[in-house]
Amino acid sequence: MEDIVGIKPLGLRNNADLTVIIPFKYTNQREDILERISFCKLDRNLPNNIDFLLVDDCTELDISEQAANICKELGISYMRLDSDDLLFSAARARNYGAMYGLSPFIMFMDIDLVVYDGFYQDALEEIKFNDLENNVRDFIGFGVIYLTKHGSELFFKTERTARRKQFLQHFLINNEEVVEKFSTGTSVQIFNREYYLSRGGNNEEFAGWGFEDLEFTCRLAHRAKHFPLPQNFLQDYKNCRDVVEYNGFKSLIRLYGDITFAKGISLFHIWHEVNNSSSYMKRKQKNRVLFNKLLKSYIERKEEPEPLPDLSQGNSLIFTLTHPAIYNREVLPRYGKIFYEEEERFKDISYLEEYLKDNNINRVILQNPYSNEIRLKIYNFLRERKVEYFVIERGALPNSMFFDRNGFNADSKSYNSENWDFEISEEKREAVLNYISEEKSNDAALEDQSERIATNKLLRQLKINPGKKVLFVPFQTPSDTVIKFFCGIYIKTYAEFVELVRSVAKSLPKNWVLVYKKHPLTKEGYEVAGGIEADDYNIKDLLNIADCILLINSGVGVLSMLWEKPVLYTGEAFYAHDAFNRRVKNQQEVISHLNNLFVPDKERIFRFLSYLINDFYSFGNFTTKVIDWSLESKMTITSEINFYQINNIGKTKYIYNPIRTVKIDNKSVLFDRYRFSTDYKLRQGTGLIGRPIMRNNTERRFVIVRRLRKLINNPHNFFEDSRFIFLRPLRYLFK
């Protein structure tokens, strides 16, 4: 997208936790708007880790200068968009604020909203209470109490320490002289900034104010699984304030603000004249029509605006628009502004140097650098010139990818022990234990595998006698780049490794057997005389029965760590470390290890796995298919990745729980306002959870008698316990 920023913001800090973004537009009908710039900073207990950014869109230059000066006096960063020839867009203002922001979280604020003392500390605590750092899809909403003209004057006359409670009281007793209305489905919300950018932000097809925030919120709420989705999500049912049945998107949206409102956290809207001009109303109606169209296209086809760049990340050069991990919605903002070129343009490597300089490229994004000559030439150039780069490829664990700025596979410094060999926290240790338990019990693997079977059954089918030890050999694909480039200096080719395995099989100690399995993507396997072929069995079941694993540099070497099995490797392996594996040069060394098998260091295994799982690897749900690659082998093609954890790229960790159903279900008190409608539908047999069980006549008479007796003996409790909300206030008549 074109950058139309005329004045870039100054004073934003990398160490701020939250940036409050305020869209701004001066008009002759709102001359009071300049003095309202200060409203956002009326919190006298303002924490020092919050930045403020006013984004000026479509304001005339002389007024813009006044606004900039006011911001400077108040300690608010100021940004001006060169949008004089465009219609004002709150969506555009919010998006530019998010793109230029530096903090992990952003909050959108309206120029007419006033805060109470302590509001921002409350907001920061809500980020913590809602665990937004570990749930990027979640967001926080805030309610707003709209004051009358009289209420607004009274607000500023009220002692500041009493404002919040006093005006919440006016709202609760429905003082219409002071309170005009309220809403908990407002545009005042807190988001993870990088996630906001990844969803494309507010849709800039909207002009002026209205519906741009609601459309974005609906998209996020539909994805978040924070609450159960209501029936008829697309239905525009009343407004957020008056909705009383869990039906339509507004019944869901208001719940985000209801949470904070129930804690007494609210903002106050100061009265101003409303623009009811025909042009304003016509634009608002157009926005409504556009909203319905866009929301329908999202629900039906998941259509969203293109991701927005995090401009603090500078410029990145990429060579693909199809790689599912590189050109991925969740990842794209983390590159900054993207430049795309075909790799073939850089056959002459001197042109790459010129291109990087001319376009101020900060980093280059690569796939497997060893997969073709041009890419390898680019890769070597970047490393020699110390140009920042990321290699993005599949990891050794199921559903994993890595974003490596230090190399690829065995040539990368990322796996050096200084990065992982230190004490790990209990939280990370628990994450590793949970991961190991889950992976050892499920069927998932890097490649398609046979169904799993019990250990005893496997041993019987392979005809392995009790007491025998198993040396397991998982063969790799000969065409794999880690074979071509990292086979090693001792066993230099794949063919030599096959011969090594055959010689080991002939000279095994008496208490050992050798079990081997071809790679699932290899069309033809290898015969190993004296060995047991296990091509049709699951890799995890084979690791279960293995006492030792022999391989070149397969990712199975990492998978074996989940079983704490000793590994012997012959090639260059990124996971090489004497604490949990040993390199062997020949058949004699293999036999020597089998006769005196080392015990892997369990703690070091945990530390290495913790590094991969918690800090280095990213994880997602993969959509894949297998295609023919060569005469000897096939290849797994990944067409889509839905990330649920992104590490090692960008400013924040992208993480959410992919198996979460809903965080807050309909048993919460937040759903009380919907209970009468839900109960009614249940009795009609059309409810959210199905038809209730019907009682027989005897049971029904018993229930009626019991309830009548309760009404006579204790009318207060009868009405207090009623499932009909509108009857409950009658309990006060019988105190």
Task: Note the topology.
Elements: E1 5-7, E2 18-24, E3 50-57, H1 61-74, E4 77-81, H2 90-100, E5 105-108, E6 113-114, H3 119-129, E7 140-141, E8 143-147, H4 149-157, H5 163-172, E9 179-183, E10 189-192, H6 193-198, H7 212-224, H8 249-262, E11 266-269, H9 278-301, E12 315-318, E13 337-340, H10 349-358, E14 363-366, H11 373-384, E15 388-394, E16 400-404, H12 426-441, H13 455-461, E17 469-474, H14 481-486, H15 494-506, E18 512-517, E19 532-533, H16 539-545, E20 548-551, H17 556-562, E21 567-569, E22 581-583, H18 587-595, H19 602-616, E23 617-628, E24 634-646, E25 654-655, H20 675-684, H21 697-713, H22 715-720
Report on the structure:
- The chain has 735 residues and is α/β, with parallel strands linked by helices.
- The chain has 4 domains: 5-301, Spore Coat Polysaccharide Biosynthesis Protein SpsA, Chain A (Alpha-Beta Complex), CATH 3.90.550; 311-394, Rossmann fold, CATH 3.40.50; 449-630, CDP-glycerol glycerophosphotransferase, C-terminal domain (Rossmann fold, 3-Layer(aba) Sandwich), CATH 3.40.50.12580; 669-734, no CATH class.
- Helices cover 34% and strands 17% of the residues.
- The chain has 22 helices and 25 strands.
- The strands form 4 sheets. It has an 8-stranded mixed sheet with strand order 13-12-14-15-16-23-24-25. A 7-stranded mixed sheet has the order 1-4-3-2-5-10-7, with helices on both faces. A 6-stranded parallel sheet has the order 19-18-17-20-21-22, with helices on both faces.
- A hairpin with a 5-residue loop joins β15 (388-394) and β16.
- α7 runs parallel beside α9 (278-301), α12 crosses α19 (602-616) and α15 packs across α18 (587-595).
- The termini are far apart.
- The relative contact order is 0.08.
